[in-house]
């Protein structure tokens, strides 16, 4: 009887520990804004990033207004610096130091999110999924910049000298800094740390319980 009690307690501890280490969805948001134009229009709106678990793809929702109809280059830039407006955000986020490409290309900057398209009223409201960017880990995009460009990104397929660098997408018409938008007690998806310690402890608990149960037979 005692051995069953010990094993039950061990299983309970394991389940409780697993519940504590379960990764919750995290969300980040950037408020993009650009200068007021001569026709009194202004590009502004939100870009929301959601990652449901460690290692999963990131869902991107773009909600912007005040644009000219058509496609506009849309990228994560390396810096979250607004000291000199959008120009302070540096180049595309490209930790691998590779050529510019499209979001579905094998070779691309981490920050290459392709184009978003404004309708006839100048509004963008779309949601899509990107398989490269992440909200966590050393390559996480939180704290970096989001930039919307004046022209269509040629996805690195054009003949312009900037094609393999920026997609020849023109000037920066709106930008914002990506900030955390989740209420989390502990940052998920970290290597090591308390989560790994709790997981190791749960495994150790099961081993000890098994040994104790065998000794009581």
UniProtKB/TrEMBL annotation:
<feature type="domain" description="Superoxide dismutase copper/zinc binding">
    <location>
        <begin position="43"/>
        <end position="178"/>
    </location>
</feature>
<keyword id="KW-0862">Zinc</keyword>
<dbReference type="GO" id="GO:0004784">
    <property type="term" value="F:superoxide dismutase activity"/>
</dbReference>
<keyword id="KW-0560">Oxidoreductase</keyword>
<dbReference type="InterPro" id="IPR018152">
    <property type="entry name" value="SOD_Cu/Zn_BS"/>
</dbReference>
<keyword id="KW-0049">Antioxidant</keyword>
<dbReference type="Pfam" id="PF00080">
    <property type="entry name" value="Sod_Cu"/>
</dbReference>
<protein>
    <recommendedName>
        <fullName>Superoxide dismutase [Cu-Zn]</fullName>
        <ecNumber>1.15.1.1</ecNumber>
    </recommendedName>
</protein>
<dbReference type="GO" id="GO:0005507">
    <property type="term" value="F:copper ion binding"/>
</dbReference>
<comment type="similarity">
    <text>Belongs to the Cu-Zn superoxide dismutase family.</text>
</comment>
<dbReference type="InterPro" id="IPR036423">
    <property type="entry name" value="SOD-like_Cu/Zn_dom_sf"/>
</dbReference>
<keyword id="KW-0732">Signal</keyword>
<dbReference type="InterPro" id="IPR001424">
    <property type="entry name" value="SOD_Cu_Zn_dom"/>
</dbReference>
<feature type="signal peptide">
    <location>
        <begin position="1"/>
        <end position="18"/>
    </location>
</feature>
<keyword id="KW-0186">Copper</keyword>
<comment type="function">
    <text>Destroys radicals which are normally produced within the cells and which are toxic to biological systems.</text>
</comment>
<dbReference type="InterPro" id="IPR024134">
    <property type="entry name" value="SOD_Cu/Zn_/chaperone"/>
</dbReference>
<keyword id="KW-0479">Metal-binding</keyword>
């Amino acid at each position: 009887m005692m051995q069953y009690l010990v094993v039950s307690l061990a299983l309970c501890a394991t389940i409780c520990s697993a519940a504590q280490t379960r990764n919750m969805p995290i969300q980040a948001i950037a408020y993009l804004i650009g200068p007021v134009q001569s026709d009194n229009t202004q590009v502004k709106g939100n870009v929301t990033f959601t990652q449901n678990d460690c290692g999963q793809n990131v869902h991107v929702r773009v909600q912007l207004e005040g644009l000219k109809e058509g496609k506009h280059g849309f990228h994560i830039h390396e810096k979250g610096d607004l000291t000199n407006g959008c120009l302070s955000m540096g180049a595309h986020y490209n930790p691998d130091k590779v050529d510019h490409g499209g979001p579905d290309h094998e070779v691309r900057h981490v920050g290459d999110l392709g184009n978003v398209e404004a309708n006839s009223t100048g509004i963008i409201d779309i949601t899509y999924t990107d398989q490269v960017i992440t909200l966590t880990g050393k390559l996480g995009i939180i704290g970096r910049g989001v930039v919307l460009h004046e022209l269509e990104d040629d996805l690195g397929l054009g003949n312009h000298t900037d094609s393999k660098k920026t997609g020849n997408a023109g000037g920066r018409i709106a930008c914002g800094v990506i900030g955390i938008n989740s209420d989390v007690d502990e940052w998920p998806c970290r290597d090591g740390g308390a989560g790994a310690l709790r997981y190791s402890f749960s495994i150790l608990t099961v081993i000890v319980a098994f040994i104790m149960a065998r000794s009581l037979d």
